[in-house]
Amino acid sequence: MAAETGEPGIDFVRRLNEYSGIGNEWIILRDAETDWSYGVHPCRRSIEEHIRNGVINLDKPPGPTSHEVVAWIKKMLGLGRAGHGGTLEP
Predict the structure, then answer these.
(1) I need a surface site. Which of 10, 16, 27, 89 has the fewest CB within 10 A?
(2) How far apart (Å, rounded) are the C-alpha atoms in residues 9 and 39?
(3) Gap between the Cα atoms of 32 and 29, Å rounded
(4) SS3 letters for 48-61?
């Protein structure tokens, strides 16, 4: 098990790396501190905040269009706005 740093985001990445078996070496730079008065650490956000302000990594199956998939996500999560970046085509 990777050594815990006490930083939830970094610990998560290290555990994910270990779980996947890929064995990537991560280089973490700390040149500046984040001013947390402008937000919340991602690991401390509620599920509702992730849904409202987050990104969904989606592997779209062949068949439905990108527009259809975005419409489904909006309906499933009760969102007023959603979109996609890049292509969702297989």
Answers:
(1) 27
(2) 15
(3) 9
(4) HHHHHHCCCCCCCC
Residue 70: is it exposed, middle or buried by C-beta count within 10 angstroms (0-12/13-18/19+)?
buried
Residue 65: both structure tokens together? 């269009």
The model's pLDDT over 4-51, given as tens digits with 9 standing for 90+, comes to 556 666 777 777 777 777 677 777 766 667 777 877 777 788 888 877
Bigger pLDDT: 70 vs 34: 70
pLDDT of residue 3: 57
Helices (H), ranges, the chain: 8-20, 47-53, 66-77
Q: For residue 66, what is the enclosing H or E element?
A: helix 66-77
| 2 close to 20: Cβ distance less than 8 angstroms | no
Sign of dihedral through CA atoms 59, 64, 70, 71? negative
| Residue 90 binned pLDDT confidence (cut-offs 50, 70, 90) | low
